[in-house]
Structures are given as C-alpha cells and as structure tokens.
C-alpha cells in the first residue's frame, strides 16, 4: 500500500503534535509549583505567607500577585538570581516591576544611562557635594526643631516630618540635578509631585487601594495612560522647560557658563557632545528619571530611620556624642560643620541606619526578568518571568548574621567594616550585583545629614511609642505612619 502526499503530511503533523504535547508536558512538569496565596494573606501578612509557602514547597515557587505570575526563591538561590545578569536581567526586571516595559524598547538603556550618570558624575564628587547639600537639610530640620523650641510645654510637640523631608529632598536634588540653588516653591512642588506620580505608575502604592488591588490589570492600564501621558508631563513642564532652555542656549552659543558646572545637566551636556533634538529629549527624560530615583526612596527611608529612633530613644545620647566627636570646623566661617569625611566617621549612626534597612521587613523588593528558560533549584523557570528572592530570609538569616539575627541591635555593625551602603547576599536593601543602586552613598549621606541636624537641636519620640507599617508588602518605598513628637534640647550641638 503506498501513502499519498496528504497522508504523509497528516502523519507528520500528528507526530509533531504528539512531540509538542510531551515536550510541553515535560516542561510544565519541570516548572516550580504554583502556590495559591489569598489576597488577604498577600497584602496583610506577606512575610508569613511567603515564608510558609517556601518552607513547604521551596526552594522556588510561583505565586500570582496583581494578576502576574512571579517566582519567589528562598535564601539558597538568592545570590544566583540577583547577580547572574546574563540569565536574570536587572534592567528588564526593574522596568517590568515599575510597570515601564517601554524602557526596554528605547534605543539606549535608560536605567543603564542613569546608572552611568550617577557613578560618573555624583559619587566621585561626594566631598564637594556634601557641603553644598548640608545647608538645605539643616534649614528644614532646624525649622522643625524650632517648633519644639517655640513651645513652652515639656511634652513633645507634634510635627509634620514627611512634609519637611520631601521639601528638603526636592530642594537638594533640584540643586544637584539642574543646579538651582534656591528653587521656587513651584519647582519644589513639581519635583515632589512628579516623584509621587511616577511612584504611583510604578505600582508603589498599588497594594493600598481597593480598586488597584482588586482589578490590577485594568488599573495599571488606566493609571499608565492618565499619569504618563497627561499628568506627569504637565507637572514636570516647568522643570523640563527650564532644562530645555538651558540646552538651547548651549546649543546656540556653544557656551554653558549659565549652568552650575557640577550639576547633572551640565555633566550630561559634556558627555553628550552635540545636542541634536534626540539628545536634548533624552537629557530631559533622564532628568525626570533621576528626580524620581533620588527623591522617593530616600524620603521613605529617612522617615523609617527617624521613627525607629523615636521608639529606640536609648540610642540618642550616644548618637549625639558621636555628632559632637565628628563635627569639623569650617575653615572660612569658623562654624562647626558636617563634611563627607565626618559623615563617613559617623560609625554609630551608620550602624543604626544599616540595622533599620536590614530589619524593616522588606519582602519582595528587587526583581529580575529571566532572559531565557533558566534551570534553577531543580526546575526550569520560563523565559520572561519575574523572579525575586524573599528578602527577610536573608536579612534575618541566622547563618549569616548570628543567632540574634532577628533582634534589632543599633550598634551591631560598629567595627565590623560593614557599612549601611556596603551590600552583600545577607544585606541588599540597595540591590545586589552590577545594577545595585548607584545612588546609595549619596542616599546614606543625605540620611545622616538629616538625622544629625534633627537630633542636634531636638529630642524626639513617637506618640504612643509606636508607628504603623501601612504596606508590609512594600516597606522599601512606602514609609510607616506615626506621629513624631519633638522636645527642645537645652543646648544646640550646632
Ligand atoms: C535610601 C534610598 C535608596 C534606596 C533604598 C534605593 C534602592 C535601590 C534599589 C533596591 C535599586 C535596584 C537595584 C537592583 O536592581 O539590584 C535601585 C536602583 C537605582 N537607584 Fe536607588 N535607592 C535609593 C536612593 C537612590 C538615590 C539617592 C539615587 C540617585 C541619586 C538612586 C538612583 C538609582 C538608580 C538610577 C537606580 C537604577 C539603576 C540601577 O539599577 O543601576 N537611588 N535603588
């Protein structure tokens, strides 16, 4: 019996289908288990929920969150996931988790450009930057302390910390980014609002709202269009216009004397060379990116550190003593001052900050996107999926940090050589690997400037001796809520 062409074709098609079926079967059999965790557990008790699921099904599990499948690993796979950028892309992971996959479609790497800019134009200049930024933080914290001084009462005066922190961060970053020494209130409000709106698009507050939690995909699409296309360009228009005009002057005259030579826009101009339309647009977009990256997270962490100090007041006397010890004298004015080297000598405050960052309960923080089907922990993680290690399993790991790993010890890191900005597998609030946060030294310097300026002139405590974590699934970017109380100090330290 001879087979005709159609029969051969049909037989081949059946064989191919059978092959594909078994291939798919063997692949899906080899996928990590998908664990169902209820909405309630995910958003209210994420740490307990993920840790229990990993204990039962680990070392890597899939969990649906906000309509998206994410793979979560335990501590044994963390280093591989966070540092092997060939298999787990940091750039694409960050873009995906920030709801900005559009960043991956640009002709240049947006995140890579920001990373390069900070590493090249901020970090090497910290010595000169700190004295420029310090007065901004001092002004705002001294204003807060003055409210306590104005009160006759010995009971603490309730103050608006978040408002002052945001203003100080926005003012200092506008100075750094566009070289504006005394930014107008409109510029400051715009920088704060833009940072906040980008945070909304990035889903940073998504866990908190009913609609955004219940209809995550629809919410993402709606908010993306609303904010990215309308609100953010409108809010950012004044700052963008100012940068645009500066670029136009340089392009027309070839001179940049009107710009602060150390501001980031100046540095970008030097690096870019010619300022064609696409270069100018790129610089404006980078200005927006850096505004968000520099203001939002640092403000949140400053609030964390202040509140932790408020409930751990026993640390304050020694921190004040440290401030007295590290203050330097300004050679021109003869006044006591904080320099970058004095901040680096502030080992006790550094240790306290590191302990706050380690212990604030980060759960899912740093995401990577698989660049291909990746074998991991005995399974195959499919290409293009989000994956992250569970942070608490490393930050509070007894093998890495000792038997008392779960205990907050303010001076734990003194003399250890481990600073709040030095990252490792056991400590990665700033990420890990090639794409770890490039702004971390700056962020830590800013936090120290702010804390020292505050405790130099006021005593602090928290109403009810407590604060509330409002988003346990995102402690990194959403600060806790509480009422800070300030009491006047008998003597200013500076
Ligand atoms: C306490 C404050 C801050 C925290 C907790 C923080 C944390 C992080 C984390 C976790 C990442 C992702 C790293 C990774 O994927 O491995 C990151 C990236 C980044 N951060 Fe920060 N950051 C802070 C402040 C800053 C500041 C002040 C700047 C700028 C001056 C900055 C600029 C950036 C940039 C440009 C990126 C993306 C580029 C990259 O991933 O290399 N950050 N940050």
From TrEMBL:
Mind listing the UniProt keywords for this protein, alphabetically?
Heme, Iron, Membrane, Metal-binding, Oxidoreductase, Transmembrane, Transmembrane helix
Q: Which Pfam families match?
A: p450
Annotated TM spans:
6-22, 187-205, 217-236, 281-307
User: What terms describe the molecular function in GO for this protein?
Assistant: heme binding; iron ion binding; monooxygenase activity; oxidoreductase activity, acting on paired donors, with incorporation or reduction of molecular oxygen
Q: Which cofactor does it need?
A: heme
User: Is this entry keyworded Iron?
Assistant: yes
InterPro entries noted in UniProt: Cyt_P450, Cyt_P450_E_grp-IV, Cyt_P450_sf
Which family, according to the similarity comment? Belongs to the cytochrome P450 family.
The UniProt entry, under PANTHER family, shows:
CYTOCHROME P450 (PTHR46206)
- State the name under which the record lists this protein: Cytochrome P450
Source organism:
Mycena rosella
């Amino acid at each position: 019996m001879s087979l005709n062409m159609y029969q051969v074709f049909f037989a081949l098609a059946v064989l191919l289908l059978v092959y594909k079926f078994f291939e798919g079967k063997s692949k899906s059999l080899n996928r990590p288990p998908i664990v169902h965790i209820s909405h309630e557990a995910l958003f209210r008790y994420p740490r307990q929920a993920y840790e229990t699921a990993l204990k039962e099904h680990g070392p890597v599990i899939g969990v649906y969150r906000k309509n998206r499948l994410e793979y979560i690993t335990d501590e044994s796979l963390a280093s591989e996931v966070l540092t092997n950028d060939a298999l787990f892309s940091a750039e694409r992971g960050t873009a995906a988790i920030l709801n900005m996959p559009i960043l991956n479609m640009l002709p240049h790497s947006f995140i890579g450009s920001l990373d390069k800019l900070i590493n090249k134009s901020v970090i090497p200049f910290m010595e000169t930057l700190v004295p420029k930024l310090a007065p901004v933080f001092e002004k705002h914290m001294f204003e807060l302390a003055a409210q306590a001084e104005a009160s006759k009462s010995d009971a603490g005066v309730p103050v608006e910390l978040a408002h002052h922190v945001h203003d100080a961060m926005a003012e200092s970053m506008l100075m750094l980014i566009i070289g504006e020494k005394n930014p107008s209130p409109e510029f400051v409000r715009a920088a704060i609002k833009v940072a906040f709106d980008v945070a909304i698009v990035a889903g940073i507050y998504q866990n908190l709202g009913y609609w955004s939690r219940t209809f995550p995909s629809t919410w993402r699409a709606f908010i993306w269009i609303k904010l990215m296309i309308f609100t953010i360009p409108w809010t950012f228009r004044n700052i963008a216009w100012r940068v645009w005009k500066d670029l136009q002057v340089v392009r027309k005259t070839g001179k940049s004397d009107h710009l602060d030579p150390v501001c980031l826009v100046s540095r970008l101009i030097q690096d870019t060379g010619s300022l064609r339309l696409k270069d100018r647009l790129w610089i404006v977009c980078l200005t927006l990116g850096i505004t968000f990256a520099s203001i939002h997270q640092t403000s949140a962490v400053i609030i964390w550190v202040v509140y932790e100090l408020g409930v751990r007041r026993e640390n304050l006397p020694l921190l004040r003593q440290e401030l007295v010890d590290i203050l330097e004298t300004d050679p021109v004015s003869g006044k006591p001052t904080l320099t970058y080297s004095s901040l680096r000598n502030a080992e006790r405050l550094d240790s306290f900050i590191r302990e706050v960052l380690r212990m604030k309960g980060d759960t899912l923080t740093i995401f990577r996107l698989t660049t291909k089907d990746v074998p991991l922990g005995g399974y195959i993680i499919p290409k293009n999926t989000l994956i992250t290690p569970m942070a608490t399993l490393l930050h509070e790991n007894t093998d890495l940090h000792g038997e008392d790993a779960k205990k907050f010890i303010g001076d734990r890191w003194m003399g250890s050589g481990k600073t709040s900005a030095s990252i490792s597998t056991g400590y990665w609030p700033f990420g890990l690997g090639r794409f770890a946060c490039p702004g971390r030294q700056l962020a830590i310097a800013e936090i120290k400037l702010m804390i020292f300026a505050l405790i130099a002139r006021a005593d602090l405590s928290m109403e009810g001796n407590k604060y509330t974590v409002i988003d346990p699934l995102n402690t990194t970017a959403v600060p806790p809520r509480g009422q800070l109380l300030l009491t006047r100090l008998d003597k200013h330290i500076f």
